[in-house]
Amino acid sequence: MIDPDGNQIGIIPTRQALESAVEFGLDLVEVSPNANPPVCKIMDYGRYRYEQTKKKQEAKKKQSTFQVKEIKVRPKTGDHDLQTKIGHIKKFLGRKDKVKVTMIFRGREITLSQLGMSVLEKIAEETEDVAMIEQRPKQEGRSLIMILAPR
Is the pTM of this model over 0.85? Predict the structure, then answer.
């Protein structure tokens, strides 16, 4: 058992530990139940729970979150439209989001898969200063998919 000041009292029976907690006007909290014998501490349980939630909130605040944004292009997308989409990709990467670039083939366009691959390579070249390729372009059914991550 540990008293409110942090001093170790030693191994004592549960009833005696509860009585000493009542004397201090605090709660007896089991800190380490897996230890042999279990470790208990005399403390204010409400304050202990409050501090635990504060620690969790602080840890949650420090972890980084990101989204996966998706940009869809076609093999015959014009140059100006492609530059606009590249601008959107750079904006998403600037906000620390990942970008999934999907090249969609419809009907007989599937024969233009080499053209689609070259368009995705062009996008990767245009964004190489702010992005790194997390997943190289790969064919999935009637689409080519590439994932870019911020540098």
Answer: no
